[in-house]
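look at this fold:
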Amino acid sequence: MTKNRVLVAGIGMVAAAAVLVGCSDDSSSKGSTPSANNGSTQVSSGGGTEVKVEGQDLSGLDVKTVTCVKQGGKINIASGAIGGQQGLGVVMTDEATPKVESLGLVVDGNALAVASMGGANTGSADVKVDGSTYTITGEAAGADLKNPMAGMISKKFEIKVTCN
């Protein structure tokens, strides 16, 4: 039982951190500016973004606030703050076949994640690229915060975003 509590707490922290990291990165720059990492920061937002959980649009998430930032060999996707309700944060590699390093979703107040922590994997994510459009699909896992002792919950997700 104690092992489950530690795992649940760790997953919740990873999901929250992914959302916060993504949000802090999107607010640091709007437009292309010089960067010490790779020469430029590319920020995209709005148009054509979709965030679905269990096949349904993630209600309470304003997709117009979702931004995509390419900088320093990473792609960060994040939503704006929505009063602590629903949220999104993704960090993935910026390469021909991107890999998700961390993903956090807040769904109905529950922090769900895709991450690797201490040799244990939580959830799964695959990325498909079509031009400048990224489609991330998989399953995020976390705790039911209304009933943390009930064990883990998981939700299938699909995120589609354009990142120029």
Q: What stands out?
A: The helical segments are 2-27. The CA atoms of residues 7 and 120 lie 9 Å apart. The radius of gyration is 15 Å.
